[in-house]
Amino acid sequence: ARPTNRYLRLLPLAKMYKVALSQFHAQEFQCSTDLTVQEIIPWGLPDVVQPDQVRIYHLIAIGNLIPLKRFEDFVRVIADVCAAIPDLRCLLIGDGPEREHIINLSQQLGVQDQLELTGAIPHEQVLELLAQSQVLVHPSSYESFGFVLVEALQQGAAVVARPVGIAPELAGVQLATSRVEFYDKVLTSLLASTSVTLPTNFR
Q1: Vertex 12, ends 19 and 166: CA angle to 5°?
Q2: Are 189 and 196 in contact (CB under 8 A)?
């Protein structure tokens, strides 16, 4: 749905039945094409809840290591939160061209010991690590849906994300746009004692 998507110019969109994955997706499509979608149908979610596990990781982020995902913001959040929680343990799952940049930034900010990069791993292992993590940090600048947000809630992890994809429509997701907001909401989520659950309409 982004303006840079060349297929928006090639397809006969006015004659097509159009479906979006989220309200955000529908709005982005309308801004790019001046057309509205007929339906919003979110992704379904299989029942794959992990058994209760000790949440040994404070923060987790997941996705392709590309500029769009803005994982350098995740590293900066780690550096900020470390001032309050020095023994922070964090995971970044995924691989891509930004890997070396992220490693270098973590070293520059002095948080290389707090951040573990797993590379690309099987989906089942991703879910298991979500179930062992307290907060998913999702700084991506764009998502049509953002399936990982729903999966994180399903696994009992709190979520702090930019208002993209399904995030603004998900009860339990805390929205942030600036470094200060990410820090405040991530730290609040880490210190909170309330449990996180997936909204019933996604079960």
Answers
A1: 25
A2: no
Give the phi and the psi of residue 176 in degrees, each rounded to 5.
Answer: -145, 145
Return d(Cα 19, Cα 71) in angstroms, integer: 29
Query: Pick the residue with more confidence: 198 or 92?
Result: 92
User: Is pLDDT at 203 greater than 60 in this prediction?
Assistant: no
Rounded to an integer, the average pLDDT of 65-78 is 98
Q: What is the mean pLDDT of the chain?
A: 89
The token pair at 125 is: 């292992």
Here the tokens at position 27 are 């709005």
Q: For 138, phi and psi rounded to 5 degrees?
A: -125, 90
3-state SS, the chain, equals: CCCCCCHHHHCCHHHCCCEECCHHHHHHHHHHHCCCCCEECCCCCCCCCCCCCCCCEEEEEECCCCHHHCHHHHHHHHHHHHCCCCCCCEEEEECCCCHHHHHHHHHHCCCCCCEEEEECCCHHHHHHHHCCEEEEEECCCCCCCCHHHHHHHHCCCEEEECCCCCHHHCCCEEECCCHHHHHHHHHHHHHCCCCCCCCHHHC
Among 127, 62, 131, smallest CA distance to 94 is for 62
The tens digit of pLDDT for each residue in 174-195 reads 999 999 999 999 999 999 866 6
Q: What is the pTM of this model?
A: 0.81
